[in-house]
Amino acid sequence: MRSHSMRSNSIRKFLYISPFMVLLAVFAYYPLYGWVYAFFDYMPPIPLSQAPFVGLKWFRSLVENQVKVDQLLQVIKNTFGMSGLSILFSWLPMIFAIFLTEIKAVRFRKFIQTVTTLPNFISWVLVYSLAFTMFSSEGVVNGFLSQLGLIQSPVLFLQNSDHVWITMWFWATWKTLGWSAILYIAAIMSIDESLYEAAYVDGATRMQVIRHVVLPSMLPTYFVLLMLQIASFLNNGLEQYFVFQNAFNKDTIQVLDLYVYNLAMGGGSYSVSVAISMLKSLISVVLLFSVNGLSKMLRGEGIV
Amino acid sequence: MSDNLTGLTPNAADHNSRFSKKIKMQVSTTDKMISAIIYIAFTLFAFICVYPFYSIIINTISANDLSAKGEIVFWPKGIHFQNYVDVFKIPGLWNAFVISLGRTVIGTLLTVGASAFLGFMFAQEDMWGKKFWYRFTIITMFFNAGIIPWYLTMRSLHLTNNFLAYVLPSVVAPFFIILVKTFVESTPKELQQAASIDGAGTFTIFYKVILPISKPILATVAIFSAVNQWNSFQDTLLLVTDSKLYSLQFILYNYINQASSLSTMVNLQNAGSTAMASLSTKQTTTSIRMTVTIIVVAPILLVYPIFQRFFVKGIIIGAVKG
């Protein structure tokens, strides 16, 4: 009797959350059904039910059609380049946090922390608007440089295909560095005070304390975040690259997410873009599980 | 010799005391140098973070022709506020403001309510399939079908050109649920048990016991989700063609884009020399763009300093158990 009422109680609790699980199913799981578009020859005005089934045609076209292969290779190169850059500099937030907590003047430290986390809270559209104000041909930087007489004609910072990877890395870092440091600051705050004292008694210099006390206690956090970053290697997102793209930098700025968007929304090639989307999601899941497994093997605990 | 530098040994104490003094002196000079470098580097980075905002603000209140020539660098010149008066006369801008505000308020209320309830429910021990449903929720943080399949789904659900598309998909937010769940689990179990013994049901416990003590974490969730809603651009881009549903972010993007194609054209025609012909149109696009930027960023600039300390704490609570 008692166990029966307990069971009905536990089912009632599930019923309370079930509307939310339905929402999740609709907006997070049902889109997986959209993958079927990759197996049809889908042209927008005609409904999917009347589109011819073509099997793996679009997947084959990704490796057979020379134009598409070249395009895709460039896109993959961009994706790897830009994700690679951010992984290469993934230690920056950690260093930022370490040196920020070295500042003894509390007010100055709080001020720096407030100011540097601000960019994280504005959208990429706003970042682009700021970038445009600074670096467009009649922007502040060009105005300043020509006032000083350093340049005759404006430097086209934004319509430039040469350093796109670096500039995209710069803007992403500008936006997120201060905020990403917060986790490390939390980790530093939780370091046992006696470790510092022991180090100072042993006569360690400031840099030695950082190297032998602070850094080692940061590494687990760093490791977890690095793993997560590697797992989402292919997911650069769309917004940043979408707002910064223009006719001049198109070749070097297109990452997978933007390429998929441009193919479908710009060119109407839904089926092939869904095919790429699908491969990307599958590879991401495999990456996530491998990294998770690797983490379990090395550290005894997973990241997910 | 190098051994002596690292530490004191009892039998050489006298000898080493001179050294230790010397070490201290060395330490303090390198310390000072390190401090100086730290201060300079952080001041520089802080400047880079703040200056773009400052620059736009002084440009919007300066004379538009000076601003268009890029002459406003450190101080405003020819101060006026006409830009802010004019910009609200642009058709569609008020409407976009209302849409952005509406989605922010409604979306935030829905997300906070759902996150609070689900966070609380997932902290309950005795729910049928709890572990499964929790994973079902969390996995969506790491895995999605991709942007185009998502778009096609939304279209088949008739959520294109529909206000609901702005607020419904973000109702169940896994990250916020983790934050609330972690918080609820850190509160003493006796609170809920006592209420339960007094005959309170699940909803009463949620409403009377959990909600009041969860205020700090819910405020964090609210501010995050409000910022997300206000900043959202991608859903308008993908799902909306009806200009009545345009958000402020979308309008701003369109203005920058017009300006950028305009300035590109001017540059190509005049091959680098200052364009005189289209100066008047150019200066209006510049001033409009900057003023709209300030209107879009203002709510964040106003809210941010008040809540900053608050959500830093919130994120640390959530980070303890990720």
Largest sheet of chain B: none
Largest Cβ-defined interface: A-B, 105 and 102 residues
Query: What value does the average pLDDT of chain B take?
Result: 80
In what range is the share of β-strand residues of chain B?
under 5%
What is the terminal-to-terminal distance of chain B? 49 Å
Number of strands of chain B: 0
Proportion of residues in extended strands of chain A:
under 5%
Total of domains of chain A: 1
Helix coverage percent of residues of chain B? over 70%
Which radius of gyration of chain B do the C-alpha atoms yield?
Answer: 28 Å
Helix content of chain A: over 70%
Note the overall shape of chain B.
globular
Would you write up a description of this structure?
The complex is a heterodimer of chains A (about 300) and B (about 325). Chain A is mainly alpha-helical. Helix content of chain A is about 70%, strand content about 0%. Chain A contains 14 helices and no strands. In chain A, helix 13 packs antiparallel against helix 14. The model of chain A has no long low-confidence stretch (mean pLDDT about 90). In chain B, about 35% of the residues are buried. Chain B has about 325 residues and is an all-alpha fold. Chain B starts with a helix and ends with a helix. In chain B, helix 2 packs across helix 15 and helix 12 packs antiparallel against helix 15. At the A-B interface, helix 1, helix 4, helix 5, helix 6 and helix 7 of A face helix 2, helix 5, helix 6, helix 7 and helix 12 of B. Chain A: One of its GO terms (biological process) is transmembrane transport.
In short:
Chain A: It holds the Pfam family BPD_transp_1. The complex is a heterodimer of chains A (304) and B (322). With 304 residues, chain A is mostly helical.
